[in-house]
């Protein structure tokens, strides 16, 4: 819900905490967020959003690990 709740509630989109201050989108969180850069590298997440979210991704468990380690799991 972190990336879409504002649509339902008709609010402004949330911003990623500083130093990012970017719109909090799936693309931002999985590919660009400087707060999670080291985590993405340690999990060896792909740099392609379509690869990460592909329904046949054999490493889908890494995506779940990412959300849990980034404390985002309960927000989606």
In short:
It is built from 5 helices and no strands. The protein has one domain (5-75). With 76 residues, it is mostly helical.
Describe the structure.
- The chain is mainly α and 76 residues long.
- It contains five helices and no strands.
- The protein has helices at 5-9, 26-32, 37-43, 49-53, 60-69.
The parts where pLDDT drops under 50 for at least 5 residues are none
The first-to-last residue Cα distance is: 5 Å
- Helix fraction, binned, reads 40-55%
Q: What's the tally of helices?
A: 5
**Major sheet attributes:** none
Task: Give the topology, please.
Layout: H1 5-9, H2 26-32, H3 37-43, H4 49-53, H5 60-69
Name its key features.
globular, single chain, 76 residues, mainly alpha
